[in-house]
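Title: Prediction job returns without error message
Component: structure pipeline
Severity: low
Priority: P3
Assignee: unassigned

Description:
Job completed but the reporter wants confirmation the result is attached to the right record. Sequence as submitted:
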Amino acid sequence: MTGPSSPDPRPASPGTAAFDHLPRPDAVAALLTVCSSPAWAEAVADGRPYDDLDALLAAADAALDRLDAAGIGDALAGHPRIGERAVHSATSAREQAGMSGASDEVRAAMAEGNAEYERRFGHVYLVCASGRSAEELLAVLRERLGNSAEEGGPAHPRGACRDPPPAAHRAHRAGSMR
């Protein structure tokens, strides 16, 4: 019951409400645009409806934490290398916009760093690229290459990517859940 002494419940965002009403196959497809693990996408889609964005993000994080090795592999395999000229999707293009004007030197250093990262840690260098310049992305990569496997390259997407927002939040911001 809402009254003068109790706060109004936080309403569902238009994007979350629309997502909640998508047919299951469409919800799974929308989720797969930001995380290519079918197990994750199905778990998040099956958890609907979500009261608000925070509930959706919490469910997305929980589903990510429950992924087994195959699901983690699927999630990591779906991420393009930072700086690759071949863009996998419109979402990737938006996220990596900072690389579009990178110099040949920065692109070469990024390609070399990506290869070293994959050799050392066994998966793609994963970072929230949105809003970051090519030079920033390269600096984060170089910093991570100085880490131990436990600090910089765990075989889990959330651990490999200490600074990004959850995948569902990126999808919501990118408009794929509107």
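Comment from assignee: result matches the submitted record. Confidence is low (pLDDT under 50) at residues 1-12, 159-178.
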